[in-house]
Amino acid sequence: MGLRFRHLASICLAILFLGYCYSPAKIVRAVTQNASGWIHFVPADEELTFSVPGNPIARIHPVYKPRDNSVERVLAHREYSGYGNGLIFIIQSFKADRPERLSNTILNLREQGTAVERDIFIDGVAAKETVRTVTSPRGTYTQHNVRFITGKHLYLVTLATLEVTSPATDQFLSSLRRRKDEKTTPIQPPAETDPGTVSNTTEVTRRAIVVWKNEPFYTEEAREHKTTGGVTLEAVFAENGYVTNIKVTRALAHGLTESAIEAARNIRFFPAEKDGKPVSQRTMLEYSFNLY
Fold first, then answer.
1. Do the beta carbons of residue 233 and residue 244 sit within 8 Å?
2. CA 33 centroid distance within chain
3. Closest to 94 (Cα-Cα) out of 85, 83, 104
4. Could you tell me the residue ranges of all domains in the chain?
5. What secondary structure, in 3-state letters, does 229-282 show?
6. Which residues pair with 89 in a beta bridge?
7. Which residue in 17, 88, 165, 222 has its CB near the most CB atoms, within 10 A?
8. DSSP per residue, 13-41
9. How many CA atoms lie within 13 A of 140 on its CB side?
10. Which CATH number fits domain 198-291: 3.40.630.30, 3.30.2010.10, 3.30.2420.10, 3.40.50.720?
């Protein structure tokens, strides 16, 4: 299999699958929205549908090939995330022939430190919901984690709000349905949005609170050339909860700059505030790529 590569960064989901092979990732955004502002989203090749308060960005993760044949193989790994109505939502989908066998390698690693809150049912499917209060240097928020298994998928749902209880959380959970004969939601690459007036970190009364930060993937070309180093980006954490206006200040070859940009677009955060109102905040992002 050759040398193994992984990158160092603040939060690294790739650690969960150490020893697997990576392939390039993709990113797309849903575009169907109803009059209330909530989107009825029917993703392709999934067994569920859901409604969300903002445009979900879909990220296709690498397909993992385990070294040990006794470990259940992940056939597809997709992530849908976004922000709206004060709610950050992340839906992780793991497709497998026997998704119940993925629990030991995924759930145990991802949900350490959370306490079981309650058993729930999602359209007749038994699910577990956990809740915890997360305190960061920028502020405190409430995080709900929901996990359930369908015929061919393991789903992990993360919901975060600044409030202890939020109607948006309940509305999201109540919208989860098993897919029937529904048309797939059209998707297209995300477009830049106007962030309005952008403030520096010294001009806001509360900086943006990052809740979810995936890391970039190594490209096959970078692996072949043993490329290392860092990518630095200037970006805006917009008041609508999405990363926009990304500018490259330090680049790397062989697709690593593009990979860093993709990872940046998938950051989920609560917008900065100034005098109690959400505002756009300028920020710098750094991603490191190292050989192992």
1. no
2. 20
3. 104
4. 18-188, 198-291
5. EEEEEEEEECCCCCEEEEEEEECCCCCHHHHHHHHHHCCEEECEEECCEEEEEE
6. 82, 159
7. 88
8. GGGGGTT------EEEEE----TTS-EEE
9. 5
10. 3.30.2420.10
Which of the 8 DSSP states describes residue 45?
Answer: T
Prediction pTM value = 0.84
Which class is 18-188 in CATH? Answer: alpha beta
CA dist., res. 52 & res. 55, Å (int): 7
CA-based nearest residue to 264, from 239, 291, 234, 221: 234
Residue type, 283: T
Residue 287: predicted pLDDT: 97
Per-residue model confidence as pLDDT tens digits over 201-214:
899 999 999 999 98
Q: Are 182 and 132 in contact (CB under 8 A)?
A: no
Could you write out the three-class secondary structure of 51-119? EECCCCEEEECCCCCCCCCCCCCCCEEEEEEEEECCEEEEEEEEECCCHHHHHHHHHHHHCCCCEEEEE
* Residue 149 banded pLDDT, cuts 50, 70, 90: very high
